[in-house]
Amino acid sequence: MPRRLHVYADPELGAYGYEEKAWYLPGARLEAFLDEARARGLTEAIDFVSAGPATDAQLQSFHTAAYVASVVSRCAKDEGSLDGAVAPIVQDAVRLLKAVSEAANAQGAANVSVVRAQLAATLAPAMSFDTYMDYLGAEQLLVHDATAGTIRLGAGAEAFLCSANPRLTGPTLARVGVERAARWICGAALDATRRILAGDHQRVFIPIAGFHHAHAAEARMYCLYNDPVLAIRHALGQLSGTVAYIDIDIHQGDGVYEAFAEEPRVVIADLHEDPSTLFPYTPEQPSEQNFPGRHEDHGRGAGAGRKLNIALAPQTTDAEYLALWTEAEAFVRASKPQFIVFESGVDGLASDPLSNQCLSTKAIDEVTRRVCALADESAGGRLLVLGGGGYELEGTKRGWCTVVEALLST
Q1: What are the start and end residues of each CATH 1.10.10.10 domain in the chain?
Q2: Cβ count near 296 (within 10 Å)
Q3: Which of 14, 126, 144, 329 could form a disulfide with 280 if both were Cys (CB 3.0 to 4.6 A apart)?
Q4: Is the peptide bond preceding residue 280 cis, with omega within 30 degrees of 0?
């Protein structure tokens, strides 16, 4: 009998996105995937499933009550952001504002060219001096007079510089539509997990899911609520053995790692690009800092040795990637998981603007097939697949349809 696949693809999930970001528009990624799936004839083997939004109580199985209430309240206003800019950007902002203050004349204005010459070569390589001027102007920290060729400190600059923990607006904008979509995504992940564990489904794919950066009380990098963590927590309550989380999204699933760093029953294998070459850095000008997600980050306490982080060098090829994958595969196999959550992010494809890799859909296909084999070996085939990242529509739709084809044919 031909295999069928259950997929959650309601428009309420696809609505996750931001009108302000051309590469992350609401509805665009889901619509592109569904169009491609129909064109390939994949929808004939798909059973579409629906689930309602997660409740506060369900979100609070991981997130704190105060955090959930804060997200709801702030998103209802449709303004500001839920997170702050990453530390290197904040550090650059402090240096730039101090340079303006030191170069200012008696009227408080500094010559743009002087400050630019002093700092431009030392800023985070993925940013530019002009980008910072626009950004800090919007934050009311700088005032740029293009006609006079000067910049001065803005109304909020003094408080920012005096703060022990200065904060800039981050990328995760507070939007009511995003909060609503995030609840639907978590509801789908929880419903899928329940159905898989009950034996109603075996393999499930949720393309708009896998918001793996969110922490218990903190939004991070476009992630409000952590649906992988909610699914894993529910599975832990229903099973007596190990749950495996495999993540091939190009960014480390830091929220999932931190949630289960000390939990021995959760085995994590995470392949991601070395953060030192990702925004705001570049492969040509990497950071010298040590970031989370290194190989030596293998869990803590009782969970030590139960997590595997593999950081990819820039421009990793399919052959190099699959060679690294064998370590992750053996690591997961040794744990004999009873349930697998697989974040099949496709933002490592060569076409994606947010990574620096040379991967093709052949690598995605091979890894997905081997994850299916792992699930069949010890988990009775029980496998929840979350779409994860992918920010170039052509690559994203091809990547996710490659995942679906592998799920259907293996």
Answers
A1: 87-162
A2: 6
A3: 126
A4: yes
Torsion angle of the four alpha carbons 22, 26, 27, 32, in this order, in degrees rounded to the nearest 10: 20
Q: Is the pLDDT of residue 1 over 60?
A: no
Contact 374, 335 (CB under 8 A): no
Task: Spell out a b/e string for 115-137, using b for 16 or more CB atoms within 10 Å of the CB, else e.
Answer: bbebbeeebbbebebeebbebbe
| 60/52 Cα distance (integer angstroms) | 16
Report whether 20 contacts 14 (CB < 8 A). Answer: no
Which fold, 5-64+174-409? Arginase; Chain A (3.40.800)
Q: Say whether pLDDT at 231 is over 60.
A: yes
Q: How confident is the model at residue 5 (pLDDT cuts 50, 70, 90)?
A: very high
Q: Can you state the angle between helices 176-198 and 227-238, rounded to 10 degrees?
A: 30
| CA dist., res. 161 & res. 327, Å (int) | 46
pTM, whole model, 2 decimals? 0.93
pLDDT score for 285: 86
Q: How far is CA 381 from the centre of its chain?
A: 26
CATH of 87-162 given 1.10.10.10, 3.40.50.300, 3.40.109.40, 3.30.43.10 = 1.10.10.10
**Residue 261 · residue 235 · CB < 8 Å:** no
**Overall size of the chain counted in residues:** 410
Q: To which residue do tokens 């402090």 refer?
A: 94
Q: Is the peptide bond before 286 cis (omega within 30 degrees of 0)?
A: no
Catalytic site residue from 6, 63, 201, 213: 213
* Catalytic site includes residue 215: no
Q: Which two tokens stand for residue 71?
A: 């997200």
How large is the angle between the packed helices 87-103 and 112-119, nearest 10 degrees?
A: 140
Mean per-residue pLDDT, 345-357: 95
Write the pLDDT tens digit of every residue in 168-181. Answer: 999 999 999 999 99
**Tokens standing for residue 143:** 């005032």
Contact 24, 222 (CB under 8 A): yes
User: Which residues, 6+ apart, have CB-to-CB distance to 286 below 8 Å?
Assistant: 274, 276, 277
